[in-house]
Write a structure and sequence with these properties.
It is built from 8 helices and 4 strands, in the order βαβαβαβααααα. With 217 residues, it is an alpha/beta fold. It has a 4-stranded parallel sheet, sandwiched between helices. Strand 1, helix 1 and strand 2 form a beta-alpha-beta unit. One of its GO terms (biological process) is DNA integration. Keywords: DNA integration, DNA recombination, DNA-binding, Plasmid.
Length: 217
Protein backbone atom coordinates (compact mmCIF):
# COMPACT_ATOMS: atom_id res chain seq x y z
CA UNK A 1 0.00 0.00 0.00
CA UNK A 2 1.27 3.48 -0.81
CA UNK A 3 0.57 6.42 1.51
CA UNK A 4 1.40 10.11 1.21
CA UNK A 5 2.40 12.55 3.95
CA UNK A 6 2.03 16.30 3.40
CA UNK A 7 3.22 18.79 6.00
CA UNK A 8 3.71 22.52 6.38
CA UNK A 9 4.95 24.28 9.48
CA UNK A 10 2.22 26.81 10.25
CA UNK A 11 -1.53 27.22 9.84
CA UNK A 12 -0.89 30.12 7.44
CA UNK A 13 0.99 27.94 4.96
CA UNK A 14 -0.80 26.08 2.21
CA UNK A 15 -0.80 22.30 1.75
CA UNK A 16 -2.52 22.48 -1.63
CA UNK A 17 0.57 22.03 -3.83
CA UNK A 18 1.75 18.92 -1.98
CA UNK A 19 -1.76 17.44 -2.03
CA UNK A 20 -2.21 18.19 -5.75
CA UNK A 21 1.09 16.47 -6.47
CA UNK A 22 0.13 13.41 -4.43
CA UNK A 23 -3.22 13.16 -6.21
CA UNK A 24 -1.38 13.21 -9.54
CA UNK A 25 0.61 10.22 -8.25
CA UNK A 26 -2.55 8.29 -7.34
CA UNK A 27 -3.24 9.45 -3.79
CA UNK A 28 -6.76 9.95 -2.44
CA UNK A 29 -8.52 11.04 0.76
CA UNK A 30 -7.83 7.68 2.37
CA UNK A 31 -4.12 7.56 1.56
CA UNK A 32 -3.09 11.23 1.89
CA UNK A 33 -2.30 12.39 5.42
CA UNK A 34 -1.93 16.14 5.88
CA UNK A 35 -0.54 18.13 8.78
CA UNK A 36 0.21 21.70 9.84
CA UNK A 37 2.90 21.28 12.47
CA UNK A 38 6.38 22.73 12.91
CA UNK A 39 9.52 20.60 12.94
CA UNK A 40 9.92 21.49 16.62
CA UNK A 41 6.71 19.65 17.52
CA UNK A 42 7.31 16.30 15.86
CA UNK A 43 5.92 14.46 18.88
CA UNK A 44 2.58 16.26 18.50
CA UNK A 45 1.91 15.28 14.90
CA UNK A 46 -1.48 13.62 15.02
CA UNK A 47 -1.68 12.86 11.30
CA UNK A 48 1.80 11.33 11.36
CA UNK A 49 0.89 9.13 14.32
CA UNK A 50 -2.27 8.05 12.51
CA UNK A 51 -0.23 7.23 9.41
CA UNK A 52 2.26 5.15 11.42
CA UNK A 53 -0.67 3.18 12.86
CA UNK A 54 -1.84 2.41 9.32
CA UNK A 55 1.39 1.30 7.66
CA UNK A 56 2.42 -2.33 7.52
CA UNK A 57 5.46 -4.22 6.28
CA UNK A 58 6.33 -3.36 2.64
CA UNK A 59 4.05 -0.32 2.61
CA UNK A 60 5.43 2.91 1.13
CA UNK A 61 5.29 6.45 2.53
CA UNK A 62 5.79 9.19 -0.08
CA UNK A 63 6.90 12.70 0.93
CA UNK A 64 7.64 15.77 -1.17
CA UNK A 65 10.99 16.22 0.57
CA UNK A 66 12.74 14.30 3.33
CA UNK A 67 12.80 17.47 5.43
CA UNK A 68 9.10 16.77 6.07
CA UNK A 69 10.31 14.01 8.44
CA UNK A 70 12.46 16.09 10.80
CA UNK A 71 14.33 19.31 11.53
CA UNK A 72 17.80 18.11 10.55
CA UNK A 73 19.69 15.21 8.98
CA UNK A 74 20.01 13.38 12.31
CA UNK A 75 16.25 13.42 12.99
CA UNK A 76 15.43 12.50 9.40
CA UNK A 77 17.82 9.54 9.48
CA UNK A 78 16.47 8.34 12.85
CA UNK A 79 12.97 8.44 11.42
CA UNK A 80 14.07 6.53 8.30
CA UNK A 81 15.78 3.86 10.40
CA UNK A 82 12.69 3.40 12.60
CA UNK A 83 10.51 2.98 9.53
CA UNK A 84 13.05 0.62 7.95
CA UNK A 85 12.92 -1.55 11.08
CA UNK A 86 9.19 -1.92 10.39
CA UNK A 87 10.00 -2.74 6.74
CA UNK A 88 8.27 0.48 5.67
CA UNK A 89 9.76 2.11 2.58
CA UNK A 90 10.11 5.90 2.26
CA UNK A 91 10.17 7.60 -1.13
CA UNK A 92 11.07 11.26 -1.63
CA UNK A 93 9.94 13.17 -4.71
CA UNK A 94 12.64 15.85 -4.44
CA UNK A 95 15.39 13.35 -3.55
CA UNK A 96 14.41 10.60 -5.95
CA UNK A 97 18.08 9.64 -6.34
CA UNK A 98 18.02 8.35 -2.73
CA UNK A 99 14.94 6.15 -3.04
CA UNK A 100 16.68 2.99 -4.22
CA UNK A 101 19.29 3.34 -1.49
CA UNK A 102 16.65 3.83 1.18
CA UNK A 103 14.93 0.65 0.08
CA UNK A 104 17.87 -1.67 -0.59
CA UNK A 105 20.28 -0.56 2.12
CA UNK A 106 17.99 0.43 4.97
CA UNK A 107 14.94 -1.77 4.44
CA UNK A 108 16.31 -4.80 2.59
CA UNK A 109 19.73 -4.46 4.30
CA UNK A 110 21.66 -5.91 1.37
CA UNK A 111 24.99 -4.26 2.22
CA UNK A 112 27.70 -5.84 4.37
CA UNK A 113 28.59 -4.03 7.61
CA UNK A 114 31.45 -1.95 6.18
CA UNK A 115 29.55 -1.00 3.04
CA UNK A 116 26.47 -0.18 5.11
CA UNK A 117 28.49 2.08 7.41
CA UNK A 118 29.93 3.90 4.41
CA UNK A 119 26.55 4.23 2.76
CA UNK A 120 24.96 5.46 5.98
CA UNK A 121 27.65 8.13 6.26
CA UNK A 122 26.97 9.08 2.65
CA UNK A 123 23.24 9.31 3.39
CA UNK A 124 23.88 11.60 6.36
CA UNK A 125 26.05 13.83 4.17
CA UNK A 126 23.55 14.00 1.32
CA UNK A 127 20.68 14.73 3.69
CA UNK A 128 22.66 17.45 5.42
CA UNK A 129 23.61 19.04 2.09
CA UNK A 130 20.02 18.91 0.83
CA UNK A 131 18.57 20.40 4.02
CA UNK A 132 21.23 23.12 4.15
CA UNK A 133 20.65 23.94 0.48
CA UNK A 134 16.90 24.28 1.03
CA UNK A 135 17.46 26.54 4.04
CA UNK A 136 20.01 28.62 2.08
CA UNK A 137 17.53 29.08 -0.78
CA UNK A 138 14.85 30.24 1.65
CA UNK A 139 17.25 32.72 3.28
CA UNK A 140 18.40 34.00 -0.11
CA UNK A 141 14.79 34.52 -1.15
CA UNK A 142 14.04 36.52 2.00
CA UNK A 143 17.29 38.47 1.54
CA UNK A 144 16.49 39.35 -2.09
CA UNK A 145 12.99 40.42 -1.13
CA UNK A 146 14.35 42.66 1.62
CA UNK A 147 17.01 44.12 -0.69
CA UNK A 148 14.31 44.88 -3.24
CA UNK A 149 12.28 46.68 -0.60
CA UNK A 150 15.30 48.72 0.49
CA UNK A 151 16.14 49.69 -3.10
CA UNK A 152 12.56 50.72 -3.70
CA UNK A 153 12.60 52.83 -0.55
CA UNK A 154 15.85 54.48 -1.64
CA UNK A 155 14.23 55.42 -4.96
CA UNK A 156 11.23 56.78 -3.11
CA UNK A 157 8.86 54.26 -4.67
CA UNK A 158 5.58 53.37 -3.03
CA UNK A 159 6.01 49.77 -1.98
CA UNK A 160 3.37 47.26 -2.90
CA UNK A 161 2.26 48.96 -6.10
CA UNK A 162 5.38 48.65 -8.26
CA UNK A 163 5.17 46.63 -11.45
CA UNK A 164 6.42 43.34 -10.02
CA UNK A 165 4.10 43.64 -7.03
CA UNK A 166 1.13 44.05 -9.37
CA UNK A 167 2.29 40.95 -11.22
CA UNK A 168 2.43 39.02 -7.94
CA UNK A 169 -1.07 40.07 -6.95
CA UNK A 170 -2.47 38.77 -10.25
CA UNK A 171 -0.20 35.71 -10.10
CA UNK A 172 -1.68 34.65 -6.74
CA UNK A 173 -5.16 34.77 -8.26
CA UNK A 174 -4.30 32.90 -11.45
CA UNK A 175 -1.48 30.48 -10.53
CA UNK A 176 -3.72 27.75 -9.08
CA UNK A 177 -5.64 27.63 -12.38
CA UNK A 178 -2.49 26.47 -14.18
CA UNK A 179 -1.92 23.48 -11.87
CA UNK A 180 -4.78 21.10 -12.64
CA UNK A 181 -5.69 20.28 -16.25
CA UNK A 182 -8.82 18.49 -15.06
CA UNK A 183 -10.15 21.70 -13.54
CA UNK A 184 -12.79 23.25 -15.85
CA UNK A 185 -11.21 26.65 -15.15
CA UNK A 186 -7.73 25.44 -16.16
CA UNK A 187 -5.64 27.86 -18.21
CA UNK A 188 -2.26 27.37 -19.87
CA UNK A 189 0.86 29.17 -18.71
CA UNK A 190 0.87 31.13 -21.97
CA UNK A 191 -2.63 32.42 -21.28
CA UNK A 192 -1.78 33.04 -17.62
CA UNK A 193 1.18 35.21 -18.67
CA UNK A 194 -1.12 37.25 -20.90
CA UNK A 195 -3.65 37.66 -18.09
CA UNK A 196 -0.94 38.76 -15.66
CA UNK A 197 0.89 40.85 -18.25
CA UNK A 198 4.26 39.28 -17.50
CA UNK A 199 6.85 37.26 -19.40
CA UNK A 200 7.34 33.51 -18.99
CA UNK A 201 10.66 33.99 -17.10
CA UNK A 202 8.84 36.31 -14.68
CA UNK A 203 6.06 33.72 -14.27
CA UNK A 204 8.57 30.97 -13.45
CA UNK A 205 10.40 33.29 -11.05
CA UNK A 206 7.17 33.95 -9.14
CA UNK A 207 6.32 30.24 -9.22
CA UNK A 208 9.68 29.39 -7.63
CA UNK A 209 9.15 32.04 -4.94
CA UNK A 210 5.74 30.56 -4.09
CA UNK A 211 7.12 27.01 -3.85
CA UNK A 212 10.03 28.12 -1.66
CA UNK A 213 7.71 30.05 0.65
CA UNK A 214 5.50 26.98 1.05
CA UNK A 215 8.48 24.94 2.23
CA UNK A 216 9.76 27.35 4.86
CA UNK A 217 9.96 25.45 8.14
Amino acid sequence: MKYYYARVSTAKQNLARQIELFKELGGNKRTIFEEKRSGANFEDREAWDELIECVRSNDVIVVKNLDRLGRNAKEVRECLVKLADKKVIVESIDQEYLNEFLKTKLVDKTADSLAEAMLNAMLDTMLEVDLLRAEWERRELRKRQQEGIERAKARGQHLGRNKEEKYREKFKEIYRLTRDKDNPDYISITKACKEIGCSRPMFYKMEKEVELEKNIL
